[in-house]
# Entry
Amino acid sequence: MKIGIFDSGIGGMGVLHEAYHRLPDNEYIFYADTDHVPYGLKTTQQIKGYADEIVRFLIDKGVDAIVVACNTATSVAIEDLRAKYDLPILGMEPAVKPAVEGTDKKRIMVIATPVTIRETKLMNLIKRVDENHRVDLLALPNLVTFAENEIFDGDQVVEYLEKEFQEYDTTRYCALVLGCTHFNYFKPLYRRFFDDSVELIDGNAGTVHHLADVLSLTAINNKTEVKFDSIEEMLSMGQTKYYASGKFVEDTKTLEHYRRLHNRLEEVYGLK
Ligand code: DGL
# Structure
């Protein structure tokens, strides 16, 4: 199967990385819309336009299914895309349901982009599942910019998070839902604010299992490392082709950047 995965930027690479673990015997196209990142600060109409263009691009490349590896684009555009195109299109939304269903009944914090937080899709989900009003929402748009600039730790990010979390008593939480795919890169950092009992919940594994179901593939529980020592090694995995806003990525500098991102993802993979 040939699978297209897209995001505004590098966040969706976490879904691709998860797919390497679970569904390695497929072909992948990864599309980062680097000309338009961050989506989280754009209008609904703009994001709809970008998503439509990307889906058409991926269909032209002959994909069997598309994963919108972006909570923001999903919240705005998924219904239109599904109505318009005749192939499986999977979206991502903050994993509020598993968080609410967890055994620990303390509060739940959902971090996402401003667009995801203001859209009705997330509001409706919360209305449906958050019977006891335990969910708090916090927009962290700067994390997207930090991630795009490969700044995953250090004073700038820590100070930003300190400022954003300061009005919350983080001891009152049992789960932190990472409602933006860019936020996975920062997993170790959240531990400075939330202790080990707080579960970090992202949607990557759920999305890949859903993809397997939709395409009738068998997902494997692969415990082997997915780490790349060279660009060649990275490109041979899933015969992946990378595109940045429609341009085929072949320059060493960008590919080296992607290789580092995969290795970062492997480092934080599975941190709960
Ligand atoms: N990675 C995206 C998400 O999951 C959006 C980041 C952005 O472009 O603002 O929401």
Q: What stands out?
A: The mean pLDDT is 97.
